[in-house]
Amino acid sequence: MTFSILSIITEITAQISGDFEDFIIENISIDSRSMQNNSGTLFFALKGQNHDAHAYIGELIESGVRCFVVDHIPNDVKDKALFLIVSDTTLALQQTAKYYRKLFHFPVIGITGSNGKTIVKEWLNFLLSSHYSIVRSPKSYNSQVGVPLSIFGANENHNLGIFEAGISQKGEMEKLAAIIQPNIGVFTHIGTAHDDGFENQSEKIAEKVRLFKNCEVVVLQKNEEVEKHIVNAVFTWSFIDNEATVYAEKIAEKDDGVTKLNVFYNGNSFCVTIPFEDAVSLSNAMHCISVLLYLNVDVQTIINSVQNLYPVEIRLQAKKGINNCVLIDDSYSSDYQSLKMALDFLEQQKQYQKKTIILSDIFQGGLPIEQLYKKVALAIQNNKIDRVIVIGETISKYLKELPNVISFHSTAKFLKQFNTESFQNETILIKGARSFNFDEIVVLLEEKNHETVLEINLDAIVHNLNFYKSKVKSTTKIMVMVKAFGYGNGGFEIAKLLEHNKVDYLGVAFADEGIELRKAGIKLPIMVLNPENSSFNAMIAYDLEPEIYSITGLKAFLKLVKEKNIASYPIHIKLDTGMHRLGFEEAQLPELISLLKNNNFVQIKSVFSHLAASDDTSFDDFTKLQFSRFTDYSNEVINALEIKPIRHILNTSGIFNYSNMQLEMVRLGIGLYGVGNSQIENSNLQNVSTLKSVISQIRIIKEGESIGYSRKYRVDQEIRVATIPIGYADGIRRAWGNEKGYVLIKNQKATILGNICMDMMMVDVTNIDCKPSDEVIVFGDYLKVTEIAKAIETIAYEVLTGISKRVKRVYYKN
Ligand SMILES: *Cc1c(COP(=O)(O)O)cnc(C)c1O
Hints:
The chain is an alpha/beta fold and 814 residues long. It has five domains: 5-92, MurE/MurF, N-terminal domain (Udp-n-acetylmuramoylalanyl-d-glutamate--2,6- Diaminopimelate Ligase, Chain: A, domain 1); 104-306, Mur-like, catalytic domain (UDP-N-acetylmuramoyl-L-alanine:D-glutamate ligase); 316-329 and 338-448, Protein-Tyrosine Phosphatase, Chain A (Alpha-Beta Complex); 455-673, TIM Barrel (Alpha-Beta Barrel), CATH 3.20.20; 689-813, Lyase, Ornithine Decarboxylase, Chain A, domain 1 (Beta Barrel). A ten-stranded mixed β-sheet has the order 19-18-17-20-16-15-39-21-30-38, sandwiched between helices. Strands 7-8-6-9-10-11-12-13-14 form a nine-stranded mixed β-sheet. A hairpin with a 2-residue loop joins strand 13 and strand 14. Helix 3 (89-102) packs parallel to helix 6 (172-180), helix 11 runs parallel beside helix 12 and helix 22 (589-596) packs parallel to helix 23. The protein is globular. The two termini are 29 Å apart. The model has no long low-confidence stretch (mean pLDDT 92). Residues 481, 529, 610, 651-652, 667-671 line the site of pyridoxal-5'-phosphate.
């Protein structure tokens, strides 16, 4: 369905500025960094707490975008494009989506609930795709912005919509309901967790069910507490109450990974096999079966398709590949909308200039096939993909015109014919429909490693960055410390994400860390905290800016830039105000000033200092003293040299506790990685890193035996012990062993028995239902690094930076 600018002007009550020229909107965008913005794009300049897209309009005009929805026109772009001016751009996006939704008359399933929305949506899509041509929310797009963006995926060839809606506050659901306009509601689950946005459980349920206001029916697990809020007809299911519309009974369990159910509906019964055993999956499957029954899908089809349900992997993952490649694993889905998202992620994550995509046939009801592949081809071209490998008969046929295309008729043929050595130093997006088994390609191209991984949640990093940004003025610059391999989380990947999120500066400890970032293509200015005289030459070659903290260092650097005849090389002056680590002391300021006076070889980019106790407000007086010394010393330098450098003194806990000392820049470190220095600070942060391993082996140990080196643990009654392939050489400190520490298996504590070995540890699983190759969490969401640090009397900084390089890092994004 096409729509034009003209058709939405009244919908969003916009004022027009610029030469009005109506055109058909081909694509709605809110992301200035997407390479898919072009002359057919209508761009909504959204404003968040820490982000204002109005700042990027200039760049977007340069990339061809002609029309913007804004709340004001920034000065530098006046008269350069068509502007639709509204009072609230997010609202305008929602109003546009509402208008667009009204152009369609097919049935829509609207899903909400505390958990399970995305899985139920993906499963319904799978179960119904042979009966309908479906448009659905991509990934977990269910927010105030995600829902509108999902709706724009609909077109005239669809005949069913499946959209999810998620809320966190009162008043939000009404807006989403008006956009989704569902006919059939699905209520997945109501969590008991306390949500900040609501007074109590009842208020939370009442808000969520607003989605169903105009539904003909609501599908849910029989639950009086929820049902009393629902005014519509209900279609319920239950495992315990045979009064429910659909009643299901488990047939004896066999521990073989599947569950057989007898399902009773409408006076008949049938038996289904669900390929899961856990309660959550069974409940998700029952929601789906109920919707299918409501839609009159015949029982045999239900039986046949439900047994093929699969684990849903929604997040995009970047993994280390062979020969220095980076793999973006999206081997579970293939539709046009998720292709566009994956291409954006590829651009963000590319570590090497060369971009490759391996793509299967696209399965998407909706567009006529030629048109679909035309759009796919265009997206690939816009994203400047160097090498395109297509697998599948259909895609091979339609994409053969593209330059750089290599095609294969099946995954098996590709695996047989393709030489893996031809993949070198490139970023590879692997995207295919499930039936193509692209996971086999991932296995082939993935770097083989042992099973311990440190998973890094890139969304959480962005969340934490935004939290600290919200603590300072929007004009205050942010330097992020990525020293020590990004506090153990990875250097390049994090730097790339920060560049994408437009921080102002990066900080590293040593020149070689900065050089590594430059070699990987990072363009942000980088300050080096400990420049050694021997590295000055390399620093200049790689455009790295030294912290100058001594007269000797300054003289040596000045000598070098003079020899090289360089003008205005950026440097940073460190002042010692009480940390007593590095920096100029008060008595040295006159000499510093005389060396820098009338010196055009260097430019003083910033003057800074470091607080010794910003994390501990009981040292409040000392922190204030440091700040006043900094003000005095820096003024002396600034006035004498008549310069206007950036001034900065705050690290993470400084930002949290002393935002009045923010000056022109702050230096964010540990907080970005999800660790604050107080409980309140931590409650605002999201966990970034999860260290995972697996169980290698399980054994029963009899009374009287002992476990591990030096017979440290004595067995006084028979126990069950699991061996985990992670030890002190991976960075797990021995102090955490001998029953002081534990790991989590199936969310339960498994105490570490005896000494931690170099590469392994043994844990007590007597009371845990687990088996070899089950997942083990060493730290993460529910066992925080801070807890471990406290128990072994150190700080989280040390635990995080101690995770050795042999542990593979995996980056993901929801
Ligand atoms: C490491 C470091 C920071 C960041 O400290 P956090 O406590 O991790 O926020 C800031 N400034 C300097 C000079 C540093 O060395």
